[in-house]
Amino acid sequence: MMIFLLLLFSYITFHLYKLIFQNRAHSCCYMLHYECYKGTEDRMLNTETCAKIVMRNKNLGLQEYRFLLQTIVSSGLGEETYGPRNVLEGREATPVLTDSLSEFDDIAFDTLDALFAKTKISPTDIDILVVNVSLFSPEPSLTSRVVNRYKMREDIKTFNISGMGCSASIVAIDLVQQLFKSHSKALAIVVSTESIAPNWYCGKERSMILSNCLFRSGGCSMLLTNNGSLKGKAVMKLNQLVRTHLGANDEAYNCCIQMEDKLGHEGFLLTKGLTKAAAIAFKLNLRVLVPKILPLKDLLRYVLHTYRRKKAKGGVAPSLEAAGEGLNMKAGIQHFCIHPGGRSVIDGVGKSLGLNDYDLEPSRMALHRFGNTSAGGLWYVLGYMEAKKRLKRGDRIFMIGFGAGFKCNNCVWEVTRDLGDGNVWGDCIASYPLPPLNVSPFLEKFSWINDEGRTDVDLTSAFNKV
Ligand SMILES: *[C@@H]1O[C@H](CO)[C@@H](O)[C@H](O)[C@H]1NC(C)=O
Ligand SMILES: *[C@@H]1O[C@H](CO)[C@@H](O)[C@H](O)[C@H]1NC(C)=O
Ligand SMILES: *[C@@H]1O[C@H](CO)[C@@H](O)[C@H](O)[C@H]1NC(C)=O
Ligand SMILES: *[C@@H]1O[C@H](CO)[C@@H](O)[C@H](O)[C@H]1NC(C)=O
User: Fold this and answer.
1) Residue 425's domain spans which residues?
2) Do 279 and 227 have their domain in common?
3) Distance between CA 362 and CA 38 in Å, rounded?
4) Structurally, how many domains does the chain consist of?
5) Ligand 2 contact, 191 CB (< 6 A)
6) Same domain for 133 and 40
7) Are 191 and 162 in contact (CB under 8 A)?
8) What is the CATH number of the domain that holds 59?
9) Is 368 annotated as catalytic?
10) Ligand 2 neighbourhood includes 166 CB (under 6 angstroms)
11) Is the keyword ATP-binding in the record (predicted)?
12) Which atom of ligand 1 is nearest to 139's Cα?
């Protein structure tokens, strides 16, 4: 009897162990390769071209031109970002379906071709496909477009997620990670980009016109797997991923929203509530994520600090700068990959986590070179770190994404081998980092934009000058 029980016990333990162990193996998520998109020369948007596009909008008056040009000059974007083709061709007010489709094709197929070529994995080996484009959903879907182009298998699981905003690619990775739990040894592809061709705002509401100044073309494709045999080929392994959603709060929900202005021009409204929403979401997210990544000592210090802080002060307006107060993230993390949405986001998060110029350099330079490419943005930052040969085996990367909703999605990757591929940065990495510019060359030409008192500017001649 005793022997029988013992046998039964060991049998059960063995199977339990196997089950747990296998589950763990399945839920591993390795990044085999990622490939960012680099536009063609003819789509480069420098400040002068931007100004030309702004001036083309006859709905605007002097005050609006001034506001827009000021934004462009101080945006942190450089002279080499890429715009959608229809905007460069002067058709931003009347986009057609083929504009959106060809924008998607350029980005998705270009990066996927490179992804398959570099990893030597065939499209027919892919088990899961996630396409993540916020603002464009044609029929048949974009996932079908990819399956059709690469003639993928009939049993492929496809997901097209849309409307998720800038932090979409992290949402997509979370989805893949969850799917991996029920699909062993699978290969998954995530295509993450934003469709800006049909979403150019042509009205005159200041709060809506902002997005035109910052959004640029770009995107990224990634190949992920939970097949342990491919571990040796992986570049990174997903350690943690935490998503925070503030959609239940009306102010947060409405702070970044697609809508029509009074005259019926469609566009994106960005309100002042955005910074507050970002601060709250970031703080809540850190509260969940931090215990999983920081050493105990630093964790205790943080808890103590928060406790003291709560006792000392009542209601302080939430700010992004203060969201990470008392945290010593550097104790567990070596690299910080912040969504290059704009200067204020990067600086805010940097201050919040006590980061220095070296830590923020990749995000700032990605904003300068490629602009705010929405969901793809994080991967250009990662590409910069790699091209600068900063990523060493065992290093941990903290990815921070914000998006409409309002959402804050963060994750931590562990680098699994020394990385040093030049990627999209290859031809220009040597000239980075750039020193901070004091005066934009553009400002010298258009000094009137900062001269609020002047109302006598001859717009026609200003227009001809650009
Ligand atoms: C997602 O794909 C399905 C079919 O594959 C399609 O019916 C649906 O409209 C797509 N949704 C979006 C938002 O693209
Ligand atoms: C991809 O989807 C996620 C979540 O579904 C969303 O947050 C993100 O914005 C999407 N990416 C783009 C580029 O729209
Ligand atoms: C896992 O990867 C190994 C090595 O490439 C491969 O031989 C094997 O077929 C893969 N397993 C599955 C289920 O695809
Ligand atoms: C960056 O672009 C996205 C649109 O894809 C927008 O939702 C977001 O607000 C932008 N970031 C900033 C700081 O403007």
Assistant:
1) 237-437
2) no
3) 17
4) 2
5) no
6) yes
7) no
8) 3.40.47.10
9) yes
10) yes
11) no
12) 9
